[in-house]
Fold:
Amino acid sequence: MFTGIVEELGEITAVETLDDACRFRLRGPLVTEGAKHGDSIAVNGVCLTVVDHEGDEFTADVMAETLNRSSLGALAVGARVNLERPMAVGERLGGHIVQGHVDGTGEILERKPSENWEIVKISLPADLTRYVVEKGSITVDGISLTVVDAGPDHFTVSLIPTTLALTTLGHKGPGDPVNLEVDVIAKYVERMLGDRVQGADR
Structure:
């Protein structure tokens, strides 16, 4: 479980393509501190398992399902990535509940800079539209953000200077893909209400 508060901007240092998977080596001095085999680290919002750890680098395997559902398959050596370790029990929840299970990908459509922030417009897959609401939470490349405006096929977020400086969203432009995870609470509510409606129809 994560919070969507990115701890470190890491880097892909090696990519090994396998038959139906991919193995990444990533550099992240902060998140690798004390890391061990089996630990979880979110990479651009995708929960990955540490396979090996040496110095300030770790390796992680990415299965075909993850490559198909997220933008990780497009990453190459030198790419910068958002890194976050799981939240610790008893710590403050700075963002919102993030599982690290990507629901789909969007694309940056437009950036509008302002003096103290920047508005970013991102495309939204049709099957995720119902989960995104104005002033609700959404995870973009592992970053917990508040939705400014929710349209039928897009949404906008407002980025403060810290987010621009310390995450991948400060470096991506129109046409670049991003991983999206909607608020899991919305999905649970939908499922429970759907079961109740179906039960009433029986």
